[in-house]
Amino acid sequence: MPKRFYKTDYRTGQDNISLLGLDVHNPVFFIAAVAVIGFISATLLVPEQASAMLLSTRDWVLATFDWLFVSSVNLVFLFCLVVIASPMGRLRIGGREARPEFSTMSWFAMLFSAGIGIGLMFWGAAEPLAYYTNWFGTPLGVEARTQEARDLALSATMFHWGVNAWSIYAVIGLALAYFTFSKGLPLTVRSAFYPLLGDRIWGWPGHVIDLLAVVATLFGLATSLGLGAQQVASGLDFLLGIEAGLTMQIIIIGFITSIAIVSVVRGLDGGIKVLSNVNMVMAAIFLFFVFIAGPTALIASGLLDNTLNYIRDFLPLSNWLGREDTEWFHGWTVFYWAWWISWSPFVGMFIARISKGRTVREFLLAVIFVPLIVTVLWFSTFGETALYQAENGIGALPEGISDVSLVLFQMLENLPWTQIASGMAVILILVFFVTSSDSGSLVIDSITAGGKLHAPVPQRVFWASMEGLVAAMLLYGGGAQALQALQAGAISAGLPFTIILLVCCISLWKGLTEDHRALKQLEKDEAS
Questions:
Q1: How many domains does the chain fold into?
Q2: pLDDT tens string 5-25
Q3: Which SS3 state, helix, strand or coil, does residue 197 take?
Q4: Three-class DSSP category at 500
Q5: CA distance 396 to 171
Q6: How far apart are CA 161 and CA 341, in angstroms?
Q7: I need a surface site. Which of 29, 135, 368, 432 has the fewest CB within 10 A?
Q8: In sequence order, what are the residues at sequence separation of 6 or more whose Cβ sits closer than 8 angstroms to the Cβ of residue 524?
Q9: Is 6 contained in some domain?
Q10: 143 within 8 A of 149, measured Cβ to Cβ
Q11: What is the pLDDT of residues 368-425, one digit of tens each?
């Protein structure tokens, strides 16, 4: 099927302004930059007030819009299943003759390491243990430290990191890839709304969409970078006795941001692709080590059990009506859905950029279900190991969680080669840290450059620096409540983009059905 570009007079970057070596979209870049710098300045000047505002906003959003987050995520997953099963799944991103630019393995590595790498390292052992021990509520209100709590600890963790999260990424990614490579529109979030808004996307409706995408991306990334900094600091404290305080966490963010700037300057092939492939190899080695050094038989048997429990508990955990576990539901599930939604412009656009030539069905199946396999392997391995130690009085984990960022290292302390494994964990977190930061920088560069794929180097440096600063300010402003401040930032940024996500589904469906009808007509003409 030949490409059927939309008939528009708009040229990519036509509203851009060249300034101080930058090539920026007017007004998206300037409004986004002023908003981010304003947040950083306010947090530096009045950190306590900034933290209080974030936390109060989070509480209001959770109390008022929990239903919106949960129902939206459920609808997005169902939408993806319908598209996969429909004849539209055979449409190819970029046209009938397009072919993939990257090997399948490199494609998997890049989409996965850019997606949830830091989170897997941070929560791999900690989240199942938290649910089992009632660190901050238990799933569905079950009694802590029981067999039921054990089963739900793993199935609820996989629920948060499984198909729901990746369905969100898949919808945004597919919309951006399809309308960019098959329709000739700029690689920016507003392009996904052309079937509904037409040329109005080049005006203020489009500006607002892109601005919300930039803000959501920055705060979603900052949440991950903040979690990564906390865990690296805990690892250095564990390995070297360096105090894991706020100062050390901010130093780590500065150090990693510097490395990320070098990587983002090198670009997609020279930086991110190489780091992503290194990431996956290191993660596979680390996973294999814990599998062998941990309770191997228990982990192996748990793979099937945890998968079946995940399927069994999927509907109860997806429900938001009449629940008694409100604290757990708000603190975990709604936070995760908001976090994934705030990440969706970043991960979706990044996946879109590397997915030309894939069919719609291939794209959705891979983006949703391949990470699920890794999620089951990862959380079964790390979660079963942590729970085994907690249940059998091994090390510090039986006492519960004192510092959530330290759980991984406390678990590794009871395995062979503790120092080597812990050192490898720190390095892996750092590399995931870098790939998330520089991938996000490239995405924000594209949005604030009007959809151009290759923004000037100073522009990439600017946004990579802003990501690090926002993460540092969330930690600084949060103080003793740093984790809650990180959550507040993600939830607040995720709310407005939830509406964008739902409307994007409607726009994508309209665009795909139009092209499917055209393909059927073309095939009919070729056959006659």
A1: 1
A2: 666 777 877 888 987 778 888
A3: helix
A4: helix
A5: 42
A6: 13
A7: 135
A8: none
A9: no
A10: yes
A11: 998 888 899 999 999 999 999 999 999 999 999 988 999 999 999 999 999 999 999 9
